[in-house]
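Intended use. Records such as the Adenosine kinase entry shown here are meant for training and evaluating sequence-to-structure methods. They are not intended to support clinical decisions.
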Amino acid sequence: MPASAHSFELIGVGSPIMDLLAQIPDTFLTTLTGAKGGMVLVDAQEMEAIVTRLENHPATVAGGSAGNTAVSAARLGIRTTFLGKLGNDATARAYKENFAHAGGDVSRFKYADLANARCVSLITPDAARTMRTCLGAAMTLAAGEISPADFHGCRHAHIEGYLLFNRDLANAVITAARAAGCTISIDLASFEVVNAARDWILAQLHHGIDIVFANEDEIHALFPAVGQDYPALAKRLAEFGGLAAVKIGKDGAWIAKGTELHRILPVPAPTVIDTTGAGDAWAAGFLYGYLRGWTPLASGALGSRLGSECVRHLGPAIPAAQWPAIHAEAAKLSG
């Protein structure tokens, strides 16, 4: 089916989470279990306990890994929708309104009569983020609710790795997306995800995934024997037949496809405020180019531009004032 025949070029799949952003000293992390820089699921009681201990009231912004990518993709001009479960509260309504305001379609959200998902993102002075997530309504999305109809008319499905904590749901999502004829990308999301679901990821790679996004920690967790040779890690991931995008933060990225290997240069950020959502923004820029038929180098260049812009601001959302310049750069890259 040609791209013009699809109602949507991109469907994001994941948990529609509202982020609570808090800048903290490193000592605050000593009061938590789990490693710095990772994501741990918590219940509502533990979430409130963490928020209560914060010195300042956290900023609130729509988030979620696939949600961040979908919002930036919509801002770029991609026809975008989203599959995930919202709650029934003011937080859920604000999330839905934000997605629509970005230009996204809200017709494929599902709903539960529960509190919406929230994530407290703890940002240390080095701009690293450590996340604690209470999934709320999003956690009730069940495999039995997913069917190929959810993906009908969609060209490409972008799936966040956090879904892999629910193996049955992940299986239902990827099976339905394939049945609907979507190409598929997965963002591995966190080293905790890879550690918990490495066998599932490898099995799906053998089955066929069009694009896999991974950062340094995630690719190391997937292929621990390869070491820290990022070109080799990218080529190892690409051996499964898809496109491998290995993001290495301020040092750019490596993209591998078949025998091709591309070095993606970084776009330096004058000041790094917060790395929350930077990888999601990178994926949005790359997917825009990929869905427009650009070269991997051009797609990666736009990814680097969005990732660089994201870290200059608090939270995963790129401010509205920055988008005209991004659109102008995308137009240049398309040539």
